[in-house]
Design a protein that fits this description.
87 residues; mainly beta; five-stranded mixed β-barrel
Length: 87
């Protein structure tokens, strides 16, 4: 049986849910500045597949690498870590 390669798993915050079955997730990481030796926040935005349209802006989600689903979608929602209260 062939083994699937190691797929990256990252946690992030949903910043957009306007598309159908797609969310945009902002992932934060800390990078050490070489000159000042301080930690600086860097952000990446990933488009992820959300089959049930269950995630909304502000939710914390865990996404996992997936096969290409469209031109820019290569991630899939694995779990919702925290829901925001709807106002």
């Amino acid at each position: 049986m062939s083994q699937r390669g190691n797929r990256r798993i990252v946690d992030g915050t949903v910043v957009s849910d306007k598309m159908d079955k797609t969310i945009v997730v902002r992932v934060e990481r800390l990078v050490r500045d070489p000159q000042y030796e301080k930690y600086v926040r860097r952000y990446s935005r990933f488009m992820a597949h959300d089959e049930d349209n269950a995630c909304h802006v502000g939710d914390r989600v865990r996404i996992i690498e997936h096969r290409p689903l469209s031109k820019r979608k290569r991630w899939k929602v694995q779990a919702t870590l925290a829901k925001t209260t709807g106002v």
